[in-house]
Write a structure and sequence with these properties.
- The complex is a heterodimer of chains A (478) and B (356).
- Chain A is an alpha/beta fold.
- Chain A folds into two domains: 12-45 and 167-458, no CATH class; 63-157, Alpha-Beta Complex (Spore Coat Polysaccharide Biosynthesis Protein SpsA, Chain A), CATH 3.90.550.10.
- Chain A is 49% helix and 15% strand.
- A ten-stranded mixed beta sheet of chain A has the order 3-4-5-2-1-6-11-8-12-7, sandwiched between helices.
- In chain A, helix 1 packs across helix 11.
- Chain A starts with 7 loop residues before the first helix and ends in a 6-residue tail after the last strand.
- Chain B is extended.
- Classes of the chains: A alpha/beta (478), B mainly alpha (356).
- Chains A and B meet through helix 1, helix 5, helix 12 and helix 13 of A and helix 1, helix 2, helix 5, helix 9 and helix 17 of B.
């Protein structure tokens, strides 16, 4: 009979070194990104000093189409659209795509915005599911609604691109709220440099904020612990993750919640892919791959201050589904564009950002969770003592806390949006506490997402349970 | 059966990683708290300052002179920021009163000192203030800032120079507008908008003179001209339309066509197939076109570019002989789906406008 001859001391030694090295490398790299972001913010913030002054439009701002894909959004869409229609920007239109909603989304839109069918010359430059009708608002000349058969978010975005007439388009989620000056800020890079093809803005957590009539009136922190942890996560992801990568020239993600793209470039690369759940990241990685392959000069930029606010899940099930979808989207985006990795003209995106994402973000949860499990097993079988087990946990959690705190430091150095004293204590508390369970749980969900991608499970729109407790009805003036 | 002792190297490494990260975390935590404390004090001081500035400045603008508030050195930039805020939104006589108000504080020397030795932000605020104030003593330090590598700094200094003495600033600033490709077009356009007409004319003359040398860069500058809203033909436009083959440059030049006497030049571009050129031609014909241009506009209805079709259809319906009946006939005669769809859209837009 076959006898399994395992050298357990060697296995333990190797595992411990491997997981320790993994945590050190990933944390070290993120700290490096953090330093790059600090350096960049130090250069960026002084330039903002005159931007708080009243702005006069020059007439040279590029017109933008705001694309809002909507599926079963009857409760949130009106407030979001109202906020978009009141943006401070000289020329923009809003195109809502009702992607075959099963609820009253279209009826609510027709009633609220006085929509009427309009014989628009719609040209299908990107393939999408059939369009059932196009409506124009009688109240807002810059508002149109495309009603189409259900095809998913990417399909809805492709239809909206077909209907857009301006050179830039801005993707916004139907439940997101933009700050009044967001559009003005996010289009600056396009005016500064004609090579810019995409710009991402920051997404912040709306839970706990007071929103009146589609606009943010007061910044607040969520009372729900899970949402509070996500405030730290979003700070970490946007303030030093994306800003750092953007400075290095390796930005692989521009959030579909708030990003502006040059329309012709997106059409040239084939628009949004409809067979992925991470259509936003996939498009960005594909643009890198194709433009680098064709040796076309381009830039993709992340800006930390044009802000969009979004509601994050406060229940385990929705959050788990969201994280699983994100992980699958990440895997699909990377494996669908493997040609970028180590490609001849790959640059930072192909030689640094892509391999990093693949090892630490795509397979990271696997390494992390296996690491935790092995430590437990080693302890359980008596291979390591309780103090040794605690020391390894101390190192792993310590590095996590360091990253969380450094994102808070960046926020405090730059925008300090959460300006009440109690809020900073709340954030500090969350930054420390999230490392004791929440981050590990998150990694576990991402691991399930990785497996579901491997085993090919697919779903459509990521539906989210929304509470909207932060939204107040419009104040009716007499 | 324990394989790992506390004294093992990897355990010691893990322990020290934990210790070091915890120490840095605690330092960061203290840093965050101290920054927040400093911010709270600063905001409290700024709020008080803002209140006193408003109580003094608003009556001053209305003509009621009051004793100026005492401004500490550390509050100077916050104070000036409030003042600039009013300068940017007010027009005419009120701006003069604002200048009077600031001069009554006798802060000029301090502001010039800030312009010379302040931080980056302070220099920006000081340059903007001194520009609005028309402070001639700031000329020399502003010239120094004009040479700084930061485009924002050099542009702010240029704007201040133009505001202080537009005539003398011409010779210095105009060549820089041509040279500085990193200056934001929107800010440049605003600078030109706010400059006096003499400076604007000098800018046009400079462009005309440098047209050939600055050709690759001209596109951006042409866009600046776009905001000038002139109703008289610009000689540079004729020069470019007759000499340039660059479609984007032609399109930019066409945007500036504003007079019927330039129609012949426009018609000379009918054989250009670039969509950006066709859009501009259609837009011009929509404003200045004659019946003989209808044939060209009808041919554009088949273009694969939406904007070309849209502008052509819009221009067509504006022609005097295209009434509702003629438009319906035109729609019925189109075999091309693109052309028919765009005409239907324009017709619907026209009808809706009538309904409204």
């Amino acid at each position: 009979m076959f006898e399994l001859n395992i050298d357990w001391p060697q296995v333990v030694t190797f595992s411990e070194w491997f997981f320790l090295a993994y945590f050190v490398v990933i944390s070290g790299f993120y700290l490096l990104l953090n330093l790059v972001s600090i350096f960049n913010l130090n250069l960026y913030m002084p330039n903002k000093v005159l931007e708080g002054l009243p702005q006069i439009y020059s007439g040279l701002e590029p017109p933008v189409s705001i694309l809002v894909p909507a599926y079963n959004e009857q409760t949130s869409i009106v407030a979001s659209i109202q906020s978009m229609l009141q943006l401070n920007y000289p020329m923009f239109d809003v195109i809502i795509v009702n992607d075959g909603s099963k609820d009253e989304t279209l009826a609510v839109l027709i009633k609220t915005f006085g929509l009427l069918p309009f014989p628009e010359a719609y040209q299908e430059r990107l393939k999408s599911k059939p369009v059932r009708g196009i409506y124009r608002s009688t109240l807002h000349p810059n508002l149109r609604v495309i009603d189409k058969e259900n095809g998913g978010k990417a399909d809805a975005l492709n239809a909206a691109i077909n209907a857009s007439h301006y050179p830039l388009f801005c993707c916004v989620d139907a439940d997101s709220l933009l700050q009044r000056n967001s559009l003005q800020g996010i289009t600056y890079p396009f005016m500064e440099d004609h090579r810019v093809i995409a710009v991402g803005g920051t997404v912040r957590v709306a839970n706990g904020c007071t929103i009146v009539d589609g606009f943010l009136k007061k910044v607040g922190l969520p009372t729900h612990l899970m949402a509070l942890f996500q405030v730290i996560e979003y700070l970490r992801a946007f303030l030093f993750g994306r800003l750092g990568w953007s400075v290095l020239g390796g930005l692989l993600i521009i959030s579909g919640t708030f990003g502006v793209f040059r329309k012709e470039t997106v059409i040239d690369v084939g628009g949004f892919r409809t067979d992925t759940v991470g259509e936003d990241m996939e498009l960005v990685v594909r643009m890198h791959r194709i433009l680098r392959k064709n040796k076309k000069p381009y830039r993709m930029v992340f800006l930390p201050d044009p802000v969009s606010w979004t509601e994050v899940p406060e229940d385990f099930k929705t959050l788990k589904n969201q994280r699983m979808r994100w992980q699958r989207g990440l895997c699909e985006s990377l494996f669908g564009n493997m040609g970028l990795m180590f490609s001849h003209n790959g640059g930072v995106a192909g030689w640094l950002a892509f391999p990093f994402m693949l090892v630490f973000e795509c397979f990271g949860p696997l390494i992390e969770i296996v690491g935790y499990i092995l430590m437990f097993i080693f302890y359980w079988f008596g291979f390591i003592s309780w103090p040794v087990f605690l020391i390894f946990m101390f190192a792993a959690i310590g590095m996590g806390m360091l990253l969380s705190l450094s994102s808070l430091l960046l926020e405090e150095m730059s925008f300090h949006i959460y300006n009440r004293p109690g809020q900073i204590f709340g954030l500090l508390f969350a930054a420390i506490l999230e490392n004791f369970g929440f981050r590990q749980l998150n990694s576990f969900w991402r691991l399930i997402g990785l497996f579901s991608w491997i085993f090919g499970k697919k779903d459509g729109w990521g539906e989210m349970k929304r509470k909207k407790t932060h939204q107040k009805p419009a104040v009716v003036s007499e | 059966m324990e394989f790992v002792a506390l004294s093992d190297f990897r355990v010691i490494v893990a322990f020290w990683i934990g210790v070091v990260t915890t120490i840095i975390t605690v330092i960061m935590l203290l840093e965050v708290l101290s920054m927040r404390l400093a911010l709270m004090f600063r905001e409290k001081r700024n709020r008080r300052l803002k209140q006193s500035v408003l109580q003094w400045l608003i009556p001053f603008i209305a003509g009621e002179k009051r004793e100026p508030p005492k401004v500490a050195r550390r509050d100077l930039s916050a104070f000036l920021y409030q003042w600039i805020h009013f300068q940017e939104i007010l027009r005419g006589e009120s701006k003069q009163r604002l200048n009077e108000a600031l001069r009554s504080c006798a802060l000029e020397e301090q502001i010039i000192k800030m312009l010379r030795k302040g931080s980056f932000e302070e220099k920006l605020i000081a340059a903007t203030t001194l520009g609005h104030l028309g402070e001639k003593q700031a000329w020399e330090p502003l010239l120094v800032l004009l040479k700084k590598p930061s485009p924002l700094m050099s542009m702010t200094a240029a704007r201040a120079l133009v505001l202080i003495d537009p005539e003398n600033a011409q010779a210095i600033v105009l060549p820089l507008i041509i040279k500085h490709r990193d200056w934001m077009p929107t800010r440049l356009a605003l600078m030109l908008k706010q400059a006096n007409p003499l400076f604007q004319q000098a800018f046009l003359a400079q462009l005309d003179q440098d047209a050939v040398e600055t050709q690759p860069y001209l596109l951006r500058l042409m866009r600046l001209l776009d905001v000038e809203n002139s109703n008289t033909p610009i000689p540079l436009v004729k020069k470019l339309l007759t000499s340039s083959d660059d479609p984007e440059l032609i399109a930019s030049s066409l945007r500036l066509v504003c007079h019927p006497s330039e129609l012949a030049l426009v018609r000379g571009k009918f054989d250009n197939n670039h969509w950006a050129v066709q859009v501009q031609i259609a837009a011009i014909l929509g404003k200045l076109g004659k019946p003989q241009d209808a044939h060209y506009l009808v041919s554009l209805l088949n273009s694969e570019h939406w904007w070309v079709r849209y502008r052509a259809a819009k221009a067509l319906v504006k022609l005097p002989f295209i009434n509702s009946h003629a438009l319906k006939k035109l729609i019925a005669s189109r075999t091309d789906l693109f052309a028919r769809d765009i005409l239907l859209q324009i017709n619907a837009e026209k009808e809706r406008r009538c309904l409204n």
